[in-house]
Design goal:
Shape of chain B: globular
Strand content of chain B: 35-45%
Chains: A alpha/beta (254), B alpha/beta (430), C alpha/beta (482)
Helix content of chain B: 10-25%
Helix content of chain C: 10-25%
Number of helices of chain B: 7
Number of domains of chain C: 1
Oligomer: heterotrimer
Strand content of chain C: 25-35%
Strand order of the largest sheet of chain C: 4-3-7-9-12-14-17-20-22-24
Radius of gyration of chain B: 21 Å
Number of strands of chain C: 24
Mean pLDDT of chain C: 83
Structural class of chain B: alpha/beta
């Protein structure tokens, strides 16, 4: 098992936001997590990647057999956990390419591998750029600075391709994307899918799941997974909205 | 320190004479403190950093009359001079309010009557740094007339309030008007100040305005400095904003008076406030216009934006000194400041000093300052389209200046200001 | 989840200043105190001509009359000028004829600082003048430079061997009465470097002076004079360190640059004086007057500085743009952390027609550090078509530091174009987390951001030193972010 979340509870500023999440992800699987605003979807991503201010108040998470919650954010990344941010931040002065080489070499050093050769790095960059149709000009610009929304999201997938993680969490990567950008991003992800890696796709809209077809769909509501199913569940949600989900929650939690 | 002029002696002896006045204790204590603050420093000199470029000494040499009585003013003016301006008109003759003005929800009263009420103790000079501001201290110690404009809570004023000061300057006069604006909780107020001068002797105005914008209130404050050459004006404007309030200040100085010194101080005393300071100075022959602004971010999540533009003509001089302080508690501050200048003459001098002092870390602040002449590219482009040199220059200067005037939210005022700009610029060119 | 900020801060605070060691060597130290006798003593020690002694005494008189500066926005510590020794030299003799005569301990000291002096090890492409307390101990590549007619030696030596040149230019850019500390320097300066590049010569290597304060209770007052004659070019670099001591030490240097027609001087500083400990005890007061003059048309002077050390740094390398179409540049990175104060910037005086200046200042404040940019761009009435561009940015790390900008812009010419931009931003938790999430730890993340931020300035340094400066910058900020 790649990811095993058991009864995960977390809070921000003493406000409980995850109230006991259970989720197992195996290599080769794609899980979609859906749910209304404020249900805890992005918080789950933040807790898993170790963002500050999120306090774990209970439960455990193992990642590839190791205790994930015990690791620093960078070690989680080095172990192969990748978050495609909902709002990728701009970092002026740091070029995309310099950033990527640093990240790649840090991860390699962690695994006792030597730094990547310049030539090999260049080759890898070109190859992955093509994969996600990422404009080569953007790689020399400052990280995300002045990028359009679509460019930022594509840059996230480009980084995903470069760093080749075991588990990728896409946090609302589809929000605000037009249909072309959505197609490009999804194509990138589909090409990167293999039986060795896994994806957790957090989304609001069923639309994305037509492009990235999930093996499982989970509905998060009020800090808990209240329903799990296959991709048909997503369609059902699209039609009926989330209201019909809310009922069993209150009864279940009593 | 200037303490040797006859004006200084005149003022100090006048102050002492009036000690047996009938004012309430808190007010005479305040005046005493202010008077001490003034006499400690005297009139400011160019040795003080804040007055480095602005020498007021030559303007203090007149044999000033300190008390222009109302009787000396024969003006039948009942309204100010802004055409087609639909406003509540308030006319102050030699500083005095003669007629009752009634506006629903808004009280307008002479300052000295109002100050009998203990309530104003918590407003008057409460935030003015008297020791650092000798001119404001002098006004506080000795002001005679002035008015209070106060909007009750939840009152949205139906139209702007236009305050016109009419002074008789048949002889040299030294006047110290005072204005207190209070916009109570969730009220909205627009105040426009302008000036009318009769007579051609030097008139030195040392004014103080205090503006309190309470929680969730909005105040727009316009100061139109359209004056004849005999005016010298030192103006101190202190605004205090409470949480969720909005304040806009528009200070426009046009050719005419020889000396203008505006101090615009803004204290952001609550969270989530928004403030805009817009300034335009078009300086004409022999004129010195000095704008000192100070925006003090004391609380988190406040936004301030400052845009000051200057066009310098003939042998004029302008000073811009803009300070932004972001104090330690003022996290998530957004503070912006821009000062752009065009020098149209080789005899003009500009001194610009934008200044940021930041003690909090989670802030976004920037300032910019430019000094330049015409954009040759733009000029060429216009000429290539058949526009003559003078017309092209006028077009560009107007575009430069109107960037600030189009922030004016009262159409009549905007029209009035823009018309004067165009007219003054034409005069300066010939 | 682990919260690193406190741990890292702790770890960093314990980080030692790398160059804080003391060299144990027998020194001749003048008794503490400042008087006309002190000046006679120094002048006699150096066997100076009468004109220089007279000049020093005049400077001393103006020092006595100078008021203490009061315009800075920090509390100026009281410096007791009588509690300082104004001369300290290794006993074995002031200037050595050959390296064999130099105390091996001294050579070892400079080697430890990364400045090898022995012929076998000298840095390729860089000629070094090494100054230890009050005297220059060695100058490398002297002969090679001589072949090009270039004079590169200690100023004491120049006074003896090129007296007319020194007399002609000394104090012409920074007069002996310029300010309190410049006057003090003129009265008591003990050594420093002298450079003369003849007409049309492009100096074939970087020239460099390395300053080391060693003895306690001494001040260092070096004086540097660089003259680039018509059409010549020189790139000069200074570096400096001092041992860790609990008391503050004064460093009041003066640098004068003179660029004739079509000449160019590039002056770089990597300043790493001891900054004091985290409580703000000890450290160097770095009060320096640096000024250059572009005498002739099309001359160019460029200042680049990386300031990471000193308890207080207070300096404004300036350019007087006298020659028509001359150019002045100022590139600066100043880092303050713990209780360090940096008040630095530049003055550009546009006098000639078509003169240009460019100012790029990057301040980085961490801990309780205070960083001020103070600058003046002055355009005189005759400086037709003068141009200036100023960019001054501040980066804040942590919530107890401060960033301040005080630019003065004064223009008396309508054809001048002056642009000033300033921004303040912080290294945010969000930025750090983003980089963490890509496998980059916090230290490296800060280094990445800071070096990106300072790149424009670091690029101006000679290659040999750019890498060093970059490292220094990262080390200086290690542990400043949680």
């Amino acid at each position: 098992m790649l990811l095993d979340i058991k009864n995960l509870q977390a809070s921000v500023e003493n406000k409980q936001i995850l109230k006991g999440i259970n989720l197992q992800v195996n290599p080769g699987e794609v899980h979609a997590i859906m749910g209304p605003n404020g249900s805890g979807k992005s918080s789950l991503a933040s807790v898993l990647t170790g963002r500050q201010n999120y306090e774990v108040t209970g439960g455990e998470v193992s990642f590839d057999g190791r205790d994930l919650l015990d690791m620093s954010p960078e070690d989680r990344a080095r172990e192969g956990l990748f978050l495609a941010f909902q709002y990728p931040i701009e970092i002026p002065g740091v070029s995309n390419i310099n950033f990527l080489r640093t990240a790649l070499n840090e991860i390699r050093a962690y695994h006792n591998e030597p730094p990547i050769e310049a030539k090999e790095f260049l080759k890898l960059t070109r190859e992955k750029q093509k994969l996600v149709e990422f404009d080569a000009k953007l790689t020399n610009r400052s990280l995300n600075e002045g990028f359009s929304g679509g460019e930022k999201k594509r840059n996230e997938i480009f980084q995903l391709a470069m760093l080749n993680p075991k588990l990728s969490i896409l946090d609302e990567t589809d929000s605000g994307l037009d249909i072309d950008a959505l197609r490009i991003v999804s194509n990138g992800v589909n090409k990167l899918r293999s039986d060795k890696n896994a994806f957790i796709v957090i989304t609001h809209y069923q639309r994305l799941l037509e492009y990235i077809v999930p093996d499982f769909v989970h509905v998060l509501y009020d800090g808990k997974i209240v329903k799990s199913g296959t991709k048909e569940l997503a369609l059902e949600l699209e039609e009926k909205g989330y209201d019909w989900i809310k009922e069993p929650v209150t009864t279940a939690s009593v | 320190m200037i303490t040797t002029t006859s004006l200084y002696d005149q003022l100090t002896s006048l102050y002492k004479e009036k000690r047996n006045d009938t004012e309430s204790a808190w007010l005479s204590n305040l005046r005493e403190d202010a008077f001490k603050a003034f006499t400690r420093n005297g009139f400011p000199t160019t040795k003080q950093e804040d007055w480095r470029f602005t020498n007021i000494a030559p303007f203090l040499k007149e044999d000033f009359l300190l008390h222009p009585g109302e009787a000396s003013l024969h003006s039948s003016k009942k309204a100010g001079s802004i055409p087609q301006f639909d406003a509540h008109e308030i006319v102050l003759k030699n500083g005095m309010l003669n007629e009752d003005v009634t506006i629903p929800g808004i009280s307008i009263s002479p300052l000295r009557t109002a100050l009998k009420d203990e309530r104003f103790k918590s407003y008057l000079s409460k935030h003015i740094p008297l020791n650092a501001q000798p001119m404001a201290a002098l006004n506080t110690a000795m002001f005679e007339h002035g008015i209070v404009i106060e909007a009750d809570k939840n009152i949205i004023a139906d139209k702007p309030i236009h305050v016109t000061y009419i002074y008789n300057a048949a002889e040299p006069v030294f006047v110290q008007p005072r204005l207190l604006i209070i916009a109570n909780k969730s009220s909205k107020l627009q105040v426009v100040e302008s000036l009318l001068i009769m007579g051609e002797s030097p008139i030195f105005i040392n004014s103080v305005t205090e503006c309190y914008v309470a929680e969730n209130a909005q105040a727009d404050h316009y100061v139109l400095q359209v004056t004849p050459p005999n005016v010298r004006w030192v103006n101190f404007n202190q605004t205090i904003q409470s949480a969720d309030s909005l304040y806009n200040n528009y200070t426009y100085t046009l050719p005419g008076g020889l000396l203008f010194r505006n101090n615009i101080h803004l204290d952001l005393n609550g969270t989530n406030t928004e403030s805009h300071l817009y300034g335009l100075y078009l300086t004409g022959p022999g004129q010195l216009t000095d704008n000192h602004t100070c925006v003090n971010h004391l609380n988190p999540n406040c936004f301030s934006n400052e845009l000051y533009k200057g066009v310098l003509m003939r042998d004029s001089r302008a000073v811009f000194n803009g300070k932004i302080f972001v104090q330690q508690d003022a996290q998530k501050t957004n503070a912006f400041q821009q000062n752009n200048n065009m020098l149209l003459s080789n005899n003009a001098i500009i001194d610009s000093k934008p200044q940021l002092e930041i003690f909090a870390d989670d802030v976004k602040c920037s300032h910019g300052s430019t000094v330049g002449n015409f954009n040759d590219e733009a000029l060429f482009y216009l000429k290539a389209r058949g526009i003559g040199d003078v017309a092209a220059r006028n077009l560009l200067v107007n575009a430069f200046a109107f960037d600030v005037t189009n922030k004016i939210q009262v159409p009549a005022v905007q029209e009035y200001v823009e018309k004067i700009i165009t007219q003054k610029m034409a005069e300066a060119y010939d | 989840m682990p919260n690193k900020s406190d741990d890292i801060l702790e770890e960093y605070s314990n980080k030692e200043y790398e160059f804080g060691f003391v060299t144990d060597i027998e020194m001749e130290v003048a008794p503490k105190g400042l008087s006309e006798e002190t000046i006679h003593f120094i002048s006699a020690k150096k066997g100076e001509p009468q004109w220089l002694l007279d000049w020093r005494l005049k400077a001393y008189q103006s020092f006595l009359k100078q008021p203490e500066p009061h315009w800075q926005n920090f509390e100026l510590p009281k410096v007791d000028f009588q509690d300082i020794s104004y001369y300290a030299a290794p006993k074995s003799g002031a200037k050595y004829k050959s390296l064999d005569e130099v105390d091996p301990e001294l050579i070892a000291t400079f080697e430890k600082l990364g400045i090898p002096l022995s012929e076998q090890k000298i840095l390729a492409g860089v000629a070094v003048d090494a100054v230890f307390d009050s005297v220059s101990v060695a100058t490398t590549y002297k002969e090679t430079l001589k072949e090009h007619g270039i004079i590169f030696c200690s100023i004491s030596e120049a006074v003896k061997e090129h007296s007319e040149l020194v007399q002609k230019y000394l104090g012409t850019v920074v007069p002996h009465s310029d300010n309190l500390y410049a006057a003090l320097n003129a009265a008591v300066f003990s050594d420093g470097s002298f450079v003369y590049i003849p007409k049309g010569v492009r100096c074939p290597m970087e020239l460099s002076t390395y300053f080391r304060i060693n003895t306690e209770n001494t001040g260092q007052f070096e004086r540097t004079l660089i003259i680039a004659d018509e059409g010549s070019y020189v790139s000069y670099l200074e570096g400096c360190t001092a041992p860790k001591r609990d008391e503050n030490q004064l460093h009041a240097a003066v640098v004068e640059l003179i660029a004739m027609e079509n000449a160019e001087i590039k002056y770089s500083t990597v300043q790493n004086w001891y900054p004091g400990d985290k409580e703000g005890n000890g450290g160097i007061y770095n009060f320096v007057t640096k000024r250059g003059v572009c005498r002739g048309a099309h001359a160019k002077i460029s200042w680049t500085q990386v300031e990471t050390g000193s308890a207080i740094t207070w300096k404004y390398p300036s350019v007087i743009l006298q020659g028509d179409y001359s150019t002045g540049e100022f590139y600066s990175v100043a880092v303050t952390k713990n209780k360090q104060i940096a008040d630095t910037g530049t003055k550009m005086f546009h006098i000639g027609k078509g003169t240009k200046s460019r100012i790029i200042s990057k301040g980085i404040s961490a801990g309780e550090g205070q960083n001020s940019y103070r600058g003046l761009v002055q355009v005189s009435a005759k400086a037709e078509n003068a141009r200036n561009f100023t960019q001054c940015d501040s980066l804040l790390i942590g919530d107890r530091c401060g960033a301040h900008t005080f630019p003065y812009i004064e223009s008396k010419n309508s054809s001048a174009t002056i642009e000033h931009e300033a921004t303040t931003s912080k290294i945010g938790e969000d930025q750090i987390f983003y980089l963490n999430q890509r496998g980059i730890d916090t230290e490296k993340a800060v280094a990445l951001i800071v070096n990106g931020y300072a790149k424009e300035v670091l690029n101006q340094l000679p290659m040999e030193f750019a890498v060093e400066a970059q490292k220094l910058l990262s080390i200086s900020l290690e542990g400043s972010v949680g």
